[in-house]
Amino acid sequence: DASDLERWEMFPANDPYAFITPGPGKWFWLMRQPVTEPPGQARPWTEVYLELADRLGILEDVYQIGNTFWVLSERYKLQKGKHYTIREIAERQAKTIVGDHFNWDMVKESPCIVTREKTIEEAYPRPFFKAKVPIYFEHFLRMKKEVEKVTENLGLQWDFTPYSPVPVYIPCPAHSESSDYDLIATNHKLPFHTFSSTAENLWIDEISRGNPYAYYIMIHTSVAKEKGLQDGDKVCVESQHGQKITGRLRVTELVHPNCVAIAGTFGHWAKRMPISRGKGVLYNALLPPPSLERIDTLSGQIDMCVRVRIYRVEE
């Protein structure tokens, strides 16, 4: 796959409807453009998808979905029997949004295109909403019956408690009391990291090293005092399932006294990741092997809560 720096992207690259800044201002649109050609036979994944659709004989169906999803104007809809590159599709999207006057010179100096001022309704949309918000999800009951047929056919034990049309509280195992494992590990994300790939970015790593919390294990000041721990100590966090991780401690008022807070996406160990290797800790290492008991049977999400204890270890 061609990287972000080697490909055109569907326009807009960052839709302001998805990343909208509240309040008045101007509508802006971004165009991601390649700064170099991809190596060898690498291609943008979007072009691969179009080729696969063509081989499967469903390219016209993809075009129809695209015309609707991108709200392309009649003049710029994708036509049957024709083949388009991603750059050509992006141009049609841009002309639909920006206008017929769009040309590639407009994104040479800056990838951002500003169109117009927001209207009052766009700047402050909530007072103008006419939609109703459901409080009873009756479709959960219909889906429950459908899933019951499948699980019975497969002989699966399935927890249907989450399939309630009204909210129900379902405590996870970590919410049970334990005198030995007196804290709950929590995982949080940092605003300057995305998934685990950015940990290998040299500049973002510099920001992380300058941040007083990014690569640290955090506990509340009252907990540190109770356990005789100090800022900068090398500590071990041990889960009730037997897994252990070690790292540097940061004592702070920013976390709940019942929690051990660990930023996600770190703890890399591969030799070919020299920038991120050995920095931060791997939160997932505290979790037990996946099991049905730790999966939300409605959403498929894994329970990330786990009871732990923390103690100082020798350097």
Low-confidence stretches: none
CATH topology of the largest domain: the name is: Barwin-like endoglucanases
What is the CATH C-level name of the largest domain? Mainly Beta
Distance between the termini: 43 Å
Number of strands: 8
Shape: globular
Polypeptide structure, described:
The protein is α+β, with helices and mostly antiparallel strands and 315 residues long. The chain has 3 domains: 4-128, no CATH class; 132-170, no CATH class; 173-312, Beta Barrel (Barwin-like endoglucanases). The chain contains 7 helices and 8 strands; from the N terminus they run βαααβααβαβαββββ. It has helices spanning 45-56, 59-69, 86-97, 120-123, 138-154, 202-210, 221-227; strands at 26-30, 112-117, 183-188, 217-220, 234-239, 244-252, 259-263, 306-312. The strands form 2 sheets. It has a 6-stranded mixed barrel. It has a two-stranded antiparallel sheet with strand order 1-2. A hairpin with a 4-residue loop joins β5 (234-239) and β6 (244-252). The mean pLDDT is 91.
